[in-house]
């Protein structure tokens, strides 16, 4: 049984093709051997991470990392384990945990996620003081960069700013 992925043709349509063809085109790097089912399962596991965006308890650093993966530079879309490649593998493989969906439009999926993203981020931000919410909404790229360097950065800043100034409070 072969697993299938989809590669866009010149019209932007993504017909299903064998995943091993996609993976073999990338590089001559010989890594560990995986069964087709294991490869599909890994793509599915990665895609399931997108669900964490809707969970208000998902750390902001994790949400920003997932957003970077989903909305990455289109040049990276054809790379193994990119968001787009994961969609292709999971939607077209007979070994997928999902019923056969055929080719999906990655931009439609991104648009769907993007339409809900502000709500999901705001739900997480409700757990932080007002000044943090304002800073994240005013400078999301800067906050994302700081969190990428140090996932605990925001928590450290909150602790630093919450040191009591009044000994009797």
Topology:
Layout: E1 4-6, E2 16-18, H1 19-26, H2 36-48, H3 60-70, H4 83-92, H5 106-125, H6 130-138, H7 140-149, H8 153-161
Antiparallel strand pairs: 1-2
What does this structure look like?
- There is one protein chain.
- The chain has a domain at 4-26 and 33-127.
- It is 53% helix and 4% strand.
- It has 8 helices and 2 strands, in the order ββαααααααα.
- With 169 residues, it is mainly alpha-helical.
Compute the number of strand runs.
2
Describe the biggest sheet? 2 strands, antiparallel
Mean pLDDT: 82
Spatial strand order of the main sheet: 1-2
Per DSSP, the total helix count is: 8
Class from helix and strand fractions: mainly alpha
Write down the secondary-structure element order.
EEHHHHHHHH
Uncertain regions: pLDDT < 50 for 5+ in a row? Answer: 1-7, 9-13
Principal-axis shape equals elongated
> Helix coverage percent of residues?
40-55%
- Beta-strand residue percentage: under 5%
First-to-last CA distance: 68 Å
What integer value in Å does the Rg equal? 20 Å
């Amino acid at each position: 049984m072969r697993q299938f992925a989809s590669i866009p043709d010149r019209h932007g349509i993504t017909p299903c093709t064998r995943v091993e063809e996609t993976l073999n085109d990338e590089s001559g790097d010989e890594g560990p051997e995986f069964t087709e089912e294991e490869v599909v399962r890994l793509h599915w596991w990665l895609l399931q991470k997108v669900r964490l965006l809707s969970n208000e308890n998902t750390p902001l650093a994790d949400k920003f990392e997932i957003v970077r993966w989903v909305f990455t530079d289109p040049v990276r879309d054809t790379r193994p384990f990119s968001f787009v490649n994961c969609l292709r593998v999971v939607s077209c493989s007979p070994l997928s945990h999902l019923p056969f969906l055929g080719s999906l439009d990655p931009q439609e999926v991104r648009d769907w996620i993007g339409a809900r993203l502000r709500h999901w981020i705001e739900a997480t931000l409700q757990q932080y003081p007002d000044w943090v919410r304002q800073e994240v909404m005013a400078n999301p790229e800067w906050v994302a960069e700081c969190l990428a360097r140090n996932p605990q950065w925001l928590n450290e800043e909150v602790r630093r700013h919450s040191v009591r100034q009044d000994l009797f409070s």
